[in-house]
Amino acid sequence: METIPLNNSTLSRYLKPHSKKYRIETVNRFCYEKGRNPVMIKVSGNVEYEQQLAADAVYTAIGWSDIKGETDQPAMEQQLQQMLSLAAINRRLVFKRNRNGEVLEMANREEVLADWHYWVQHELAKTFTSTREQQKFVQAYQYDLNNLEQVLRNNFQYSLLLPEFLGFNEVKTPGNCTRPYIQHSRLLEEQLYEYAWHTDILNDEASEFHIKLNATLLNFDEVARQKLEQVYSKTRHNSIDNFDFNLSVKYIFKKYDGSITAAKLCFDERIHEHLHYQIRMTLEKV
Fold this sequence. Notes:
Blueprint: E1 18-31, E2 39-53, E3 58-71, H1 77-87, E4 92-97, E5 103-106, H2 109-122, H3 124-127, H4 131-146, H5 148-153, H6 156-161, E6 181-184, E7 192-204, E8 208-217, H7 220-232, E9 244-254, E10 260-272, E11 275-285
Antiparallel strand pairs: 1-2, 1-11, 2-3, 3-4, 4-5, 6-7, 7-8, 8-9, 9-10, 10-11
């Protein structure tokens, strides 16, 4: 089995076709007001991960099964069930990626569309009870289908499963920075964060690579000007110094085939002490 050298860089030159099984767990904790404990929602699922190499591309298939969830707040149960139903729309996605791991296109778009039409016919009315909710969701999802590659690329789960830094050099340089990502704020309506990953730690060990990446917020000035100053102007005891956007990810890669052994993503968005959101996502082999 031949390994394709990709830009003669660390991870990429070790890539081989492989098939792995993982368990991914996402824990969301958020606080919206003073005097209330943070709300917790946890979702987990099995991932079948298959990677094939072509002369000029990497094809990665991701299949989902056994998706489960729980929350510590009965009031969030309906929202949790909606999340689980939406997670079941597309059980298998195939991505065509370039030699750096960057997503180029969805390789099984017809299958994705067929899954969507089936879900609309059989599950939509069970998930959203009102006609208005159904219409609003269908309109939003149809829009996402037209921009599917970017929508999924900006999803934290797929960002974790589809690393786009395979062409990074061993030495930390200004060039070791991904294309920008977009993330919707969990706390500020209509606010978008634009960020990019850059290497923080890259350790080359005997049989593994240990890599940590941090995200740099690219549009902080815009965020501060348009949203944060408005928010803080309404409070006495908080200022823009209370704001925090912190996003990092750690990976362990196996040298034998360039596969992911384990990964962890940490996200924190904080406006002030009583308005904050946290995500902890872990990926482990099973």
